[in-house]
Amino acid sequence: MKIKFWGTRGSIPTPGRRTEKYGGNTSCVEIRTDDGQILVCDAGTGIRELGQSLLTEFKDKPIEAHVFISHTHWDHIQGIPFFTPAFQSGNAFTFHGPGDIKGALHGQMSNTYFPVPLTAMGGKLHFVSLQPGSRVHVGKVQVLSAGLTHPGGAIGYRFTLDNHSVAYITDNELAPIESPDGPIPPSAAALADFVRDVDLMIADTQYTKDEYHSGKKGWGHSIIDDVLRLAAHAHVKALALFHHDPTHSDEFMDQLFQSKAAELSKQGVSMECFVAREGLAIQV
User: Fold this and answer.
1) Contacts of 62 (CB under 8 A, 6+ apart)
2) Phi and psi, residue 174, nearest 5°
3) Prior bond to 204 cis, omega within 30?
């Protein structure tokens, strides 16, 4: 599977010079298989550029893709009205997501919020409602879902093809893990089992410990230290730090990553870790 990041930011787009390196578009990740399947995780503003890339690649050929929505907060769906391929006949897109995903996406493009309705899209649109524990297949890819801790609820996904797997876990609030040597809290044990042994975990690491404890507890996002510990406990092979806070500049992210990488090295953790950035493509 080939993974490409089109949007890595959380909460709100943050364009400008201070975010040029890691990007200012909100959540969108593309997964490609060797047999041509296209799976997309979330549809934040990053999906607009993905759409332009698909049009350039496919030209007059039909485009078919499956979009897996973690939840319907703005930063995870706000790119859909600007996803040009969905407006063109001959293309087909299946939107998978929690609850009434069809109603939520129609509501986003009602005239209260947007001048063009979802029904103006000329492509064939299909909607699949998922619950935590749902299992679907896209070609040979098995997609499992798990419930996450986030206001209003959210779903995480695990994509498996042959012996390779990718977990997409955003937005999620892990209970603070106070002791670096203690057991994983029961609230995190199920998630650890869900992501166990994945080749790549793309995870919400929006807050530092100080930020979390400065009034953001209950906002639905995790402390980076807790995610690192859970990933190591679950024997995740590689971890992508994702859903960057709007206030985190490129310089801040560089310094944060360097300090956490040093901690992992000191602890003897062999897990690969990197900061997700727009345009980054990796093979799993």
Assistant:
1) 90, 91, 92
2) -75, 145
3) no
At 270, the pLDDT band (50, 70, 90 cuts) reads: confident
- DSSP secondary structure, 165-205, as one string: EEEEE-S--PPP---TTSPPPHHHHHHHHHHTT-SEEEEE-
Distance of CA 160 to CAs 164, 169, 190, 273, Å? 6, 15, 18, 20
pLDDT at 222 over 80: yes
Whether residue 68 contacts residue 40, with contact meaning beta carbons closer than 8 Å, is answered with yes
Q: pTM higher than 0.90, yes or no? A: yes
Question: Residue 261 is which amino acid?
Answer: A
- In the sheet that holds 281-283, the strands lie side by side as 124-130, 92-98, 64-68, 38-41, 28-32, 2-7, 281-283
Q: Is the Cβ–Cβ distance between 53 and 46 less than 8 Å?
A: no
Give the DSSP H or E segment for 102: helix 101-108
Look over the chain and give the mean of its residue pLDDT values, rounded to a whole number.
Answer: 95
Please tell me the distance from the alpha carbon of residue 137 to that of residue 157, in angstroms, as a whole number.
Answer: 12
HSE at residue 95, side-chain half, CA atoms within 13 A, is 27
Spatial contact of 38 and 62, defined as CB atoms under 8 Å apart: no
The residue among 240, 250, 245 whose CA lies nearest residue 220 is 245
Q: Quote the distance between the C-alpha of residue 220 and its chain's center.
A: 14
Retrieve residue 231's tokens.
Answer: 């990933």
